[in-house]
Specification:
The chain is an alpha+beta fold and 404 residues long. It contains 11 helices and 14 strands. A hairpin with a 2-residue loop joins β12 and β13.
Length: 404
Amino acid sequence: MTPTMPEDKYSKFSCPNRECSLFNKTGRGNITHRSWTGKHKHIERLRCTVCDREFSEREGTLMSHTKLPEEKVARLLKCQRWGVCDDGTADICEVDIKSVHRFQEVSSQRAKTHHEQVVKELEVSGVQLDEMHSKRRPGQVEWIHTALAIGSLFVLWVGFGERTTETASYLIAQVVARLRQVPIFLTDCWKAYPKALIRVLGRLYRPRRKGRVGRKPNPRLVAPDHLFYAQVVKIRDRAGRVVEVTSRVAFGGSRRFFKQLRLRGLGTAIQTAFMERFYGTLRGLVAALRRRTRCLSWSENRHRGRVWLIVSLYNFVIPHKSLRQGRVKRTPAMALGLADHVWSYPEYIWLRVHHDPLLQKEMDERIQQLLTPALPNAIIELTPARRAARKAKRKRVEPLKKAA
């Protein structure tokens, strides 16, 4: 007879029923043991006492709906973490190539869902934005747009699409919707970023008419006073080599911008080195993103799924050397306060993630609200609005009286 588990174990489980009042809530005492199932009676069946829903202990984990043992699933995860190609992963783990593709689909969707549920209401002072060129297949290119938190090196969001203003606006809206306050933005000199920032965060400005006659000036969207944004400008020669790197403050004013950098503990220099370093790591961990690789992504979903899986592992599982405190290894999630230790591979495999449609709907509405400008037809002004200078009133000089 298989002994039952102690009650303390069930505190980390949550009800997967979306209609239950305790859906996705742990430690409420509503989960109890039901039975044992499986060929060797090694899988436990649980029951929610509120909605009377029965479910497996594997639901929401990487072990759900699979016959592979835990050791082989961990090996599949490690192969994906070190950037092994699909054929090499199937050979090392001794599984069929279809099993590798199914594992990529399940793990990537679970990684993105977990990221959307955890990354919200964060305290981040500065964000670096950048885009990376990726070759998905011969003749097809897809840009990867990324937002990285300065200091913690936590990847806030990853977007895919063409290099347009709409894609940049969506990336900025995702970042602003998941933070408590508007951070300092640092990017390269791509001209779409200033326009996208004003489209998401701009305020409505109605300039005054200079004279008493004529039409009134059209309303404009301008940068608000609390928006601080700077660019790193790379000057290249005719061959495309970088010969000089300069910086400039686009929004906020030079004096106020550098004062905010010091107050928020972001240093004294305008740079995007953290973003460039992350792209180097991403190219090394995703086989399809390497230079002159033959491991191309013929599937769009698998291409994006690999990136999302590496982003999730980068934030919670892979410790970063620059974040180490003494001998204590730390991950970006630990530096941001989302985790208290480095997650192991078994912890990541058995992490239970249930899709919450209500939370997803709230976040989508917030992002859509940010993407909707205050006035759709307003002109986007890239230069900050200047207040009209008050003219000093001149005293009227009385004419001198003529001598008698």
